[in-house]
Write a structure and sequence with these properties.
mainly alpha, binds MU-OXO-diiron
Length: 161
């Protein structure tokens, strides 16, 4: 594999690991603020992100490279409202989508068809990732200042498998 593309994919392992760390941090904030349903939602999402990190890591290994694990930046751990936390999650997912778009462009330039095929899964996954976060943002906006609606959504988030 091209050295620059390898380096960019290696960085993506870190992006996904940071995603897991960010959502885990959001989970601790929700838990501390008595919104256990949203906390569970975020913990589940952190688990998904860990799987994404492994998926990229294993792909690099399959292609005969040794990935380098880099330091994971500390995420924030304070948000003012549930809406603010989910808006931050949505903004982060958009950032991750951008990362995969750049990776895909690099893979196309190099005509690395194996990597293009690999990245296709993530391109599709990101559509779902953005939708899931955006759905919660829109619901929380509809809830406005209603504590009842917030508690209902927290209960709803708790059911996420
Ligand atoms: Fe692995 Fe939510 O991007």
């Amino acid at each position: 594999m091209d050295a620059k593309l390898f380096a960019a994919l290696n960085d993506q392992v870190n992006e996904e690991a940071y995603s897991a760390y960010l959502y885990l941090s959001m989970s601790t904030w929700f838990e501390a603020n008595h919104m256990g349903g949203f906390a569970k939602w975020m913990t589940n999402q952190a688990g998904e992100e860990t799987k994404h990190a492994f998926k990229v890591l294993e792909y690099l290994q399959t292609r005969g490279h040794q990935p380098t694990l880099k330091a994971i930046a500390a995420p924030g751990n304070r948000w003012n409202t549930a809406l603010e936390a989910f808006e931050a999650a949505l903004a982060h997912e958009k950032h991750i989508t951008g990362c995969y778009q750049k990776l895909m462009e690099q893979a196309h330039e190099l005509r690395d068809h194996a990597t293009i095929a690999f990245l296709n899964w993530f391109v599709t996954e990101q559509v779902e990732e953005e939708k899931t976060a955006d759905d919660m943002v829109q619901k929380l906006r509809l809830a406005g200042d209603s504590i009842g609606a917030l508690m209902y959504l927290d209960g709803h988030a708790n059911k996420r498998g």
